[in-house]
Protein backbone atom coordinates (compact mmCIF):
# COMPACT_ATOMS: atom_id res chain seq x y z
CA UNK A 1 0.00 0.00 0.00
CA UNK A 2 1.22 3.49 -0.79
CA UNK A 3 0.46 6.65 1.20
CA UNK A 4 1.25 9.98 -0.45
CA UNK A 5 2.31 12.93 1.69
CA UNK A 6 -0.11 15.24 -0.16
CA UNK A 7 -3.03 13.05 0.97
CA UNK A 8 -2.21 13.21 4.71
CA UNK A 9 -4.87 15.60 5.99
CA UNK A 10 -3.81 18.10 8.70
CA UNK A 11 -5.93 17.84 11.85
CA UNK A 12 -5.74 20.57 14.51
CA UNK A 13 -5.52 18.78 17.85
CA UNK A 14 -4.82 21.75 20.13
CA UNK A 15 -3.90 25.38 19.48
CA UNK A 16 -0.42 25.18 17.94
CA UNK A 17 -0.53 21.41 17.29
CA UNK A 18 -1.34 19.73 13.97
CA UNK A 19 -1.41 15.95 13.41
CA UNK A 20 -1.11 14.22 10.06
CA UNK A 21 -1.60 10.45 9.83
CA UNK A 22 1.07 9.39 7.35
CA UNK A 23 0.42 5.66 7.04
CA UNK A 24 -1.34 2.80 8.79
CA UNK A 25 -1.95 -0.91 8.56
CA UNK A 26 -3.96 -3.27 10.72
CA UNK A 27 -0.95 -3.46 13.07
CA UNK A 28 0.82 -0.08 13.17
CA UNK A 29 0.28 3.64 12.53
CA UNK A 30 2.70 6.46 11.67
CA UNK A 31 1.80 10.08 12.50
CA UNK A 32 3.54 13.44 12.15
CA UNK A 33 2.96 16.10 14.80
CA UNK A 34 3.89 19.73 14.06
CA UNK A 35 4.06 21.97 17.13
CA UNK A 36 4.45 25.68 17.68
CA UNK A 37 6.72 26.65 20.59
CA UNK A 38 5.27 26.35 24.10
CA UNK A 39 2.56 23.79 23.34
CA UNK A 40 1.70 21.39 26.15
CA UNK A 41 0.33 17.89 25.72
CA UNK A 42 -1.03 17.12 29.18
CA UNK A 43 -0.01 13.93 30.94
CA UNK A 44 -2.15 11.09 29.61
CA UNK A 45 -1.99 7.36 28.92
CA UNK A 46 -3.45 5.00 26.34
CA UNK A 47 -3.29 1.27 25.60
CA UNK A 48 -1.06 1.84 22.55
CA UNK A 49 2.70 1.37 22.51
CA UNK A 50 4.28 4.58 21.21
CA UNK A 51 7.74 5.36 19.85
CA UNK A 52 8.78 8.74 18.52
CA UNK A 53 11.55 10.54 16.66
CA UNK A 54 12.30 14.27 16.96
CA UNK A 55 12.62 15.46 13.35
CA UNK A 56 13.35 19.05 14.39
CA UNK A 57 13.01 21.23 17.46
CA UNK A 58 13.34 20.86 21.20
CA UNK A 59 10.82 19.21 23.52
CA UNK A 60 10.57 18.28 27.18
CA UNK A 61 9.02 14.82 27.48
CA UNK A 62 7.66 13.39 30.71
CA UNK A 63 7.37 9.61 30.71
CA UNK A 64 6.32 7.73 33.84
CA UNK A 65 7.17 10.74 36.02
CA UNK A 66 10.65 11.30 34.57
CA UNK A 67 11.47 14.43 32.53
CA UNK A 68 13.77 14.35 29.52
CA UNK A 69 14.87 17.10 27.12
CA UNK A 70 15.02 15.85 23.55
CA UNK A 71 16.36 17.57 20.42
CA UNK A 72 16.54 16.82 16.71
CA UNK A 73 17.63 13.22 16.12
CA UNK A 74 16.60 11.93 19.57
CA UNK A 75 13.97 9.20 20.06
CA UNK A 76 11.75 7.96 22.88
CA UNK A 77 9.28 5.24 23.74
CA UNK A 78 6.19 5.21 25.94
CA UNK A 79 4.94 1.73 26.86
CA UNK A 80 1.20 1.02 26.91
CA UNK A 81 -0.76 2.61 29.77
CA UNK A 82 2.25 4.59 31.07
CA UNK A 83 1.53 8.28 31.81
CA UNK A 84 3.37 10.63 29.45
CA UNK A 85 3.17 14.17 28.09
CA UNK A 86 5.20 16.85 26.35
CA UNK A 87 6.01 20.56 26.28
CA UNK A 88 7.70 22.09 23.24
CA UNK A 89 10.49 24.55 23.96
CA UNK A 90 10.63 25.71 20.31
CA UNK A 91 8.79 24.84 17.08
CA UNK A 92 9.04 21.05 16.83
CA UNK A 93 8.16 18.18 14.49
CA UNK A 94 7.79 14.66 15.91
CA UNK A 95 7.01 11.45 14.04
CA UNK A 96 5.33 8.81 16.20
CA UNK A 97 4.46 5.17 15.57
CA UNK A 98 1.59 3.55 17.47
CA UNK A 99 0.88 -0.14 18.02
CA UNK A 100 -1.87 -1.01 17.60
CA UNK A 101 -3.13 1.86 15.43
CA UNK A 102 -5.14 4.53 17.22
CA UNK A 103 -8.73 4.38 16.03
CA UNK A 104 -9.18 8.05 17.00
CA UNK A 105 -6.34 9.09 14.62
CA UNK A 106 -7.62 7.41 11.43
Q: What is the topological layout?
A:
Layout: E1 11-14, E2 17-24, E3 29-35, E4 40-44, E5 49-56, E6 58-63, E7 66-71, E8 75-78, E9 84-88, E10 92-99
Antiparallel strand pairs: 1-2, 2-3, 3-10, 4-9, 5-8, 5-10, 6-7, 6-9
Description:
The protein is mainly beta. The chain is 0% helix and 58% strand. The chain is built from no helices and ten strands. The strands form two sheets. Strands 1-2-3-10-5-8 form a six-stranded antiparallel sheet, with no helix packed on it. Strand 1 (11-14) and strand 2 (17-24) form a beta hairpin. The protein is globular and about 35 Å long. The chain starts with 10 loop residues before the first strand and ends in a 7-residue tail after the last strand. The model has no long low-confidence stretch (mean pLDDT 97).
